[in-house]
Amino acid sequence: MSPNLAMVSDGQKFLWDGQQYDSKEEAYQIGKSYQGDNFQTLVVEENGKFLVYTRRIVKEAVVAGQ
């Protein structure tokens, strides 16, 4: 069974980065690199593997045609 592509936590939607990590430390390290690129992260353990979910808050929307 493959991991969920998306997860909702505290009413916020996170997307899986597509990788399964063997250790919690590795997953948190990857999560920190995403945070450096202005992403929020969530690390989840599933079936002995660790998954990193990310989301980015939209700060500015570009509207076409204006």
How would you describe this protein?
This protein is α+β, with helices and mostly antiparallel strands. The protein has one domain. Helix content is 18%, strand content 42%. The chain has one helix at 24-35; strands at 6-9, 12-21, 40-46, 49-55. It has a 4-stranded antiparallel sheet with strand order 1-2-4-3, covered by helices on one side. β1 (6-9) and β2 form a beta hairpin. The longest helix is centred in the middle third of the chain and has 12 residues, at 24-35. The protein is elongated and about 50 Å long. The chain starts with 5 loop residues before the first strand and ends in an 11-residue tail after the last strand. The model has no long low-confidence stretch (mean pLDDT 92).
Residue windows where pLDDT falls under 50 for at least 5 positions: none
The class by helix and strand makeup works out as alpha+beta
Gyration radius, rounded? 14 Å
> Helix proportion of residues, in percent?
10-25%
**Mean pLDDT across residues:** 92
How many separate structural domains?
A: 1
N- to C-terminal distance = 45 Å
Tell me the total number of β-strands. Answer: 4
Q: Mind describing the biggest β-sheet?
A: 4 strands, antiparallel
Portion in strands: 35-45%
Q: Describe the global form.
A: elongated
Biggest sheet, spatial arrangement of strands: 1-2-4-3
Helix count from the secondary structure assignment: 1
Question: What order do the helices and strands follow?
Answer: EEHEE
